[in-house]
UniProtKB/TrEMBL annotation:
Pfam families the record matches: zf-dskA_traR
Species the sequence originates in: Salmonella enterica subsp. enterica serovar Ank
Coiled coil found in the keyword field: no
GO biological process: positive regulation of secondary metabolite biosynthetic process
Every Zinc finger DksA/TraR C4-type domain range: 38-64
Protein name: Zinc finger DksA/TraR C4-type domain-containing protein
Keywords: Metal-binding, Zinc, Zinc-finger
PANTHER family hit by this protein: DNAK SUPPRESSOR PROTEIN, FELS-2 PROPHAGE PROTEIN
Zinc finger (dksA C4-type): 40-64
One Gene Ontology molecular-function label: zinc ion binding
Family annotation (InterPro entries): Znf_DskA_TraR
């Protein structure tokens, strides 16, 4: 493999690990009763800005 491929693979692995850790932290915060203004309290997906602005205090994404 070349250096560019190695770098891309390392970056992809790091991104997967980072995304997984963020999901774990969000789940832990939800379990402790912390509510995010930007992420759904049920599934953890990001709540679109348009929805957050049109529904003050919204805590669920469109799907939930």
């Amino acid at each position: 493999m070349n250096t560019d491929t190695d770098d891309a693979m390392a970056q992809a692995e790091l991104q997967i690990h980072t995304d997984s850790r963020i999901a774990e932290i969000r789940a832990s915060l939800r379990a402790q009763g912390h509510v995010s203004r930007h992420h759904c309290r049920d599934c953890g997906e990001e709540i679109p800005e348009k929805r957050r602005l049109s529904i003050p205090g919204v805590s669920l994404c469109v799907g939930c």
